[in-house]
Amino acid sequence: MQKMLVEGGNLLKGKVRVSGAKNSAVALLPAAILADSNVTIEGLPEISDVYTLGDLLEEIGGKVEWDGQKVDIDPEHMISMPLPNGKVKKLRASYYFMGAMLGKFNQAVIGLPGGCHLGPRPIDQHIKGFEALGAVVTNEQGAIYIRAKELTGARIYLDVSSVGATINIMLAAVKAKGKTVIENAAKEPEIIDVATLLTNMGAKIKGVGTDVIRIEGVSSLHGCTHTIIPDRIEAGTYAIAAAAAGSEVVIDNVISQHLESVLAKLREMGVTVEESDEQLLIAPRGPLKSVDIKTLVYPGFPTDLQQPFTTLLTKAVNTGVVTDTIYSARLKHIDELRRMNALIKVEGGSAIVSGPVQLEGARVKASDLRAGASLIVAGLMANGITEITGLEHIDRGYEKITDKLINLGANVWREEMSEHEVDQFQNS
Ligand SMILES: CC(=O)N[C@H]1[C@@H](OP(=O)(O)OP(=O)(O)OC[C@H]2O[C@@H](n3ccc(=O)[nH]c3=O)[C@H](O)[C@@H]2O)O[C@H](CO)[C@@H](O)[C@@H]1O
Ligand SMILES: C=C(OP(=O)(O)O)C(=O)O
User: Fold this and answer.
1) Residue minimizing CA distance to atom 16 of ligand 1
2) Average pLDDT of span 299-317
3) Residue 411 in this model has a pLDDT that exceeds 90
4) How confident is the model at residue 230 (pLDDT cuts 50, 70, 90)?
5) Contact (CB, 8 A) for 259 and 308
6) Closest ligand relative to 234 C-alpha
7) Overall pTM > 0.95
8) Where does the chain bind UDP-N-acetyl-alpha-D-glucosamine (predicted)?
9) What are phi and psi of 298, to 5 degrees?
10) Is residue 224 annotated as part of the catalytic site, yes or no?
């Protein structure tokens, strides 16, 4: 087991290239189940969530060949193998095996998904969608059994505009008989990316990117080649790190429109943000001003950047109020930031961040993926050395983050933990 050490004080400068989007990748891979012939996906991020899904595709009989960031998936011998335990628990997106296997085989048995602990993460809207398409869904000892004689298109109104439910219903509905309409659908860019892949496979989908998606079911889907979109959350993380501890950082391979809400907040804080073709330049100029942020569904401020942004606010003059309306309990990074000297109060579900304070290096634990990102940003800003444990969360979503930061001039490295440290970590 490893820990990450970050020595603060080195100003970030230079260029960093953003990888393919995690939250697209984790849906594109299961989507390949629906095809009758090979699906090739290019530009995948080299992160553990992607490899776990590759292993799950192999568990159900897929032939999965990796070539760096490219994968070729041969679905010919896939079967509707139950996946009640094991790797499905390692990540959230294993729930996409539900929609994809239901679409392909009219049945699926999948364990409840893992992923970041952000408070309750129900999947009732996914299930409501599968039931509307004609499936019977039961929960038997922690595994979800989904069975249908046949899938029939339906009108489905999502009570909450859920990314996962929108994609999962789309995965099942592309092969249902007749027309499906998803109302109050989520509009995140990753949903458009998945719909692009499905359309290239022969699916008939209209309205993606709006809150009404219309799908005309088809009887079969074929293979294709697809290139994934860049990861807006990774790009946003580097933008925040650059604002927190940078002089001039160029972020390459970005669709800046995907980050408008975040860039607007950085500009409000006094950070110079220049957008050009596929690149962003981030340069903090003078003291930062505090802002309030409220997370919302896309195109609002993304919940996945709330935690690193909270860290940035510790450096800003005055008080910033952070409210996460998507995951109100996504606050586990705050105790760790307090260990580093941050002045943050939690009141009425919001985090009130007072600044500026000089963060101090400390031993901290990443409780989830973006908490990890927030602690790395904190380490870059802090005096001395910050030791971060819980790297398995960070490795789920950030490709080669240590190397990318080193290229920007940061002093960051990983070390094996001693037995004593592993014990302490496991008991904490
Ligand atoms: C793998 C992946 O893509 N993960 C992302 C996805 O997670 P995920 O797909 O799990 O998030 P959702 O968009 O579904 O969740 C949004 C909100 O809806 C609620 N909800 C969701 C489904 C449901 O059936 N019932 C229900 O009440 C959730 O508790 C949450 O409050 O979108 C989140 C919100 O942008 C991001 O933080 C995650 O990074
Ligand atoms: C919450 C996240 O991931 P997941 O949904 O995969 O747990 C995230 O990417 O910030």
Assistant:
1) 162
2) 98
3) yes
4) very high
5) no
6) 2
7) yes
8) 92, 121-125, 304, 326
9) -55, 135
10) no
